[in-house]
Batch of 2 targets.
Target 1
Amino acid sequence: MEATGSRYRGDIVRGRMEGRGSYALPTGTEYRGALRDGMFDGEGELLFPNGGTYRAVWHRGVPTQGKYTFADGLEYKDKKWHYCDGYDRRFYTEICSGLKPAGISQLTNLDPPRKIPVGCYDCGDGFYNPETRVIVDYKLRFLRNADDDEHEWIIRTCRKAWDETTEHKPKP
């Protein structure tokens, strides 16, 4: 575990994680719950660095049923998910707290939104630098290198830190 940067605190049986424990990954994600024969097994939860949680029942390391809750309290539903769809484009904070006055846009679910480093994109779990193709978390720790598909998706869909102010220019 130490070789991968992971840490475990909890019960050990025959040299394996077993019983109750906490397993921290180098990405900052942490599992807390039941383990059996070195795998997540039984009730447990993953706590993500962004504040989200995934509570599940696990069998041999695989979740058999579970629920993801975002950091702001919004619960993900795999069926009949209507959050920010084509009919209702509000962010969850807007649903809970109401819309801003006309002319004041809310760009993300966070208000105010994160400040993105110049030349980078906010890709949801961190910042992406298209020149280096590196994604770092919001504390600027390395997460991963983007492959060609992820690079194209980020460039096409994610919010960018513009180095110049863009304003609406009415037609003459």
Note: The CA atoms of residues 20 and 116 lie 39 Å apart.
Target 2
Amino acid sequence: MNSGIQNIVISLGAMQVARRIPFDDPDVLNYVRIGYVASQVVIMGVYFFVSYKVRQKNDQTVLKYVDAQNPMSPDSGGLVTTTVRDYDLSEISKLLRAAYFGVAMMAFFHLYMKYTQPLFIQALMGLKNLYDAKPVAIHVLGKPAEGDLKRPFKTASMFGAAAGPQTDAASITEAEKKVGAKKED
């Protein structure tokens, strides 16, 4: 099943369960808060552990790909030459930023707007996203970097094939020619 569809199914299921939780009871609310904080600590701890493992492996294999162009940014895209270590660290950095943003949003929703149900739902969704994270699958779960886990990672789309960087030789040589032409100008 597609990861996006799984997120929707888990969210809807968690919402139904959250309706039955008596958040009016201060003890229950404190347990849910503790559960949310514990899940975020686990998530960030695993991401930092993966970062440590990547630095420890120090895989200097060169990785070349043509990054997908962002329609909102005309300067995006183009040839990217990096190492597996640097690529994995950048992916972990993106995952950590997403986790920090989620914590900030939950702090706003819970502390300022007094919403309680999202604490329960986001605790579950955070753990599901941790399990789906490709660097976690490679470095913690020990899955080989093949298929969907082959670097550079492709981003799954709900509406069809996965989109992402191009790794074929023709795209890379074409991008190298563009870079060479820009340097000559």
Note: The radius of gyration is 20 Å.
